[in-house]
């Protein structure tokens, strides 16, 4: 037996082992299946090469050559489709060529077995048998060379666009091996025999080197660029949370069904998107690991979903990062529950206070005010009965002072009654009659009401964009915006500015009340909607205005948010749904 025979034997063994390793890594991955099948085809081709080079019968040698077509005829389409799958990027124009490639290969296989168009005869050589080519060889050569070249093009394109620093060293190796394979196989098994130059064939050994490189990549890097596979597909598909594997550049590589359900899009439509289009708050400059980052997931139609995202690096065996895994947890139920709990706690606390205050204070207030009113009536009668000419100045001064004390007492008792009404109003907010209203005229009324109280202190600017009417309780919303404007007026210095703007965004009407006042201390921002919390001096505020406003806005299905910077001013944004 000629020593050359050991080369195709070695190629057969290496290719079979490489195919088994690729399938064991992940038999469900398209790239793995295609390249494993390519290695098995090469193993079959190599075994047939051993058979035809060890038989003395030329007819039998030609039969083995034709039988080997089951292995080499599919090299072009399989390599093309395998590299496309390994590139992990949708290329619709190239993908449409795959069925045509297989159809041409199938036609060539039929021609090989029924005609002499590919291999009409064998030629005796020192190591065994060579072969001659027929007129259809040019078609096969173009199919194989074109398929492998297009596959390399797809891989290079994806590599140049997405490769991380950790992938570049493996990328250069993979491209070198595939390029050398293409060169060697086309020369020794194609071009030279076509011109009558019979040399030992190294095509099967060159293809086996590709399989060996993939197997070596698993041990060296923990994965292979040529046959990357997928990660734990069964576990991922069972998870309710969304999971995505993204490149360090931010492009989505893989996602599970949970993520697709959360986005409301098919998996193929999300692959290749940049994560900033979906999760703009995820840190990518530079990429870093994080736990439970809360933000909003952007969906179709500018809808937003509150989510918590945890990120973790995917590393190769050398510890170098090659991507990020994102675990996305839907917080809609948690946020809704959190808001309900906060609101319920506030209402429960204020409801208890309101009941106690109403029971304990209303009756005393009522009879104290009644007695004061009666006392004022008696005081007025007494004052009329006094003759100023016959009464001393001290008595007259005493009478005037008594009248003022009674008036101040009545004012104080009315203020106490107003506080009780505010408490009751907070616990019963949201019960007003609803109608469809344009907020622009309502805000104009608010400005007319507020201007006399703010005259000489602050000017009010109105910037009213056209907005759709919304269903609401207009008296309640007027109370909200009047309270916001008066609060802004108390925050600004003499000559300050208050701006009221309207607009619309994502199915909601947006109203902002902005001032250039002193702003709110950071430690107070989270508490300003709490009942009875106020930063005003004692006697100037009850701490119920913003709490009532918050409850009214929430009862309309809206949101109210505060953005304030110390020394720069405050902006309050109210979002109210249009439906």
Write the layout of secondary structure elements.
Blueprint lengths: L5 H20 L4 H25 L3 H10 L1 H4 L2 H13 L4 H4 L1 H18 L7 E3 L4 E3 L5 H26 L2 H30 L8 H19 L11 H6 L3 E5 L5 E4 L1 H7 L3 H4 L19 E9 L5 E12 L5 E10 L1 H54 L7 H35 L7 E3 L1 H16 L3 E7 L5 E3 L1 H18 L4 E9 L3 E8 L6 H4 L19 H11 L3 E7 L3 E9 L2
Parallel strand pairs: 9-11
Antiparallel strand pairs: 1-2, 3-4, 3-7, 5-6, 6-7, 8-10, 11-12, 12-14, 13-14
Helix pairs in contact: 1-2, 1-10, 2-3, 2-5, 2-10, 5-7, 5-8, 7-8, 8-9, 9-10, 14-15, 15-19, 16-17, 17-19
Supply database-style keywords.
single chain, 579 residues, alpha+beta, Rhopdopsin 7-helix transmembrane proteins, Beta-Lactamase, 4 domains, five-stranded antiparallel beta sheet, five-stranded mixed beta sheet, 19 helices
In percent terms, what proportion of residues is strand? 15-25%
Rg, Cα atoms, Å: 41 Å
Can you tell me the CATH architecture of the largest domain? Up-down Bundle
Parts with pLDDT < 50 across at least 5 consecutive residues: none
């Amino acid at each position: 037996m000629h020593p050359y025979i050991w080369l195709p034997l070695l190629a057969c063994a290496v290719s079979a082992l490489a195919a088994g390793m690729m399938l064991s890594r992940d038999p469900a991955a398209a790239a793995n299946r295609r390249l494993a099948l390519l290695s098995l085809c090469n193993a079959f081709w190599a075994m047939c090469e051993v058979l035809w080079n060890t038989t003395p019968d030329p007819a039998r040698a030609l039969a083995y050559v034709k039988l080997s077509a089951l292995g080499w005829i599919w090299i072009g389409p399989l390599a093309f489709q395998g590299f496309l799958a390994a590139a992990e990027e949708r290329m619709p124009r190239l993908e449409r060529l795959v069925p045509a490639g297989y159809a041409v290969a199938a036609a060539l296989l039929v021609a090989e077995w029924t005609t002499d168009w590919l291999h009409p005869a064998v030629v005796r050589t020192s190591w065994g048998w060579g072969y001659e080519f027929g007129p259809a060889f040019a078609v096969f050569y173009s199919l194989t060379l074109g398929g492998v070249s297009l596959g390399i093009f797809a891989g290079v394109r994806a590599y140049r666009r997405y490769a991380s620093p950790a992938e570049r060293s493996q990328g250069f190796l993979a491209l070198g091996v595939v390029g050398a394979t293409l060169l060697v196989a086309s020369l020794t098994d194609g071009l030279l025999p076509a011109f009558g130059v019979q040399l030992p064939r190294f095509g099967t050994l060159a293809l086996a080197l590709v399989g060996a490189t993939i197997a070596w990549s698993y041990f060296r890097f923990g994965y292979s660029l040529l046959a990357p596979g997928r990660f734990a597909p069964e576990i991922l598909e069972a998870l309710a949370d969304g999971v995505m594997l993204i490149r360090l550049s931010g492009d989505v590589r893989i996602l599970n069904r949970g993520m697709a359900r959360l986005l409301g899009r098919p998996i193929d439509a999300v692959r290749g998107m940049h994560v900033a289009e979906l999760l703009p708050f995820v840190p990518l400059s530079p990429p870093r690991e994080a736990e439970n980052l809360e933000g909003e997931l952007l969906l179709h139609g500018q809808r937003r979903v509150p989510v918590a995202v945890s990120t973790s690096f995917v590393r190769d065996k050398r510890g170098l990062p090659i991507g990020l895994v994102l675990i996305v947890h839907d917080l809609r139920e948690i946020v809704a529950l959190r808001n309900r709990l906060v609101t319920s706690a506030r209402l429960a606390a204020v409801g208890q206070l309101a009941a106690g205050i109403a029971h304990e204070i209303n009756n005393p207030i009522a009879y104290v005010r009644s007695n004061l009113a009666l006392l004022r009536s008696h005081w007025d009668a007494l004052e009329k009965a006094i003759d100023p000419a016959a009464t001393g100045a001290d008595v007259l001064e005493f009478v005037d002072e008594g009248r003022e004390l009674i008036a101040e007492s009545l004012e104080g008792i009315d203020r106490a009654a107003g506080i009780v009404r505010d408490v009751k109003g907070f616990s019963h907010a949201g019960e007003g009659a609803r109608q469809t209203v344009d907020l622009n005229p309502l805000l104009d009324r608010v400005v007319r009401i507020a201007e006399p109280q703010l005259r000489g202190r602050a000017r009010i600017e109105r910037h009213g964009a056209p907005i759709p009417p919304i269903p609401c309780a207009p008296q309640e919303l007027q109370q909200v915006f009047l309270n916001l404007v008066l609060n802004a007026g108390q925050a600004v210095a003499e000559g300050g500015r208050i701006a009221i703007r309207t607009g619309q965004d994502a199915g909601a009407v947006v109203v902002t009340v902005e001032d250039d006042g002193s702003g709110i201390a950071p430690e107070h921002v989270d508490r300003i909607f709490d009942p009875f919390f106020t930063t005003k001096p004692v006697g100037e505020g009850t701490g119920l205005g913003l709490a009532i406003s918050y409850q009214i806005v929430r009862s309309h299905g809206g949101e109210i948010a505060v953005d304030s910077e110390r020394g720069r001013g405050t902006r309050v944004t109210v979002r109210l749904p249009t439906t």
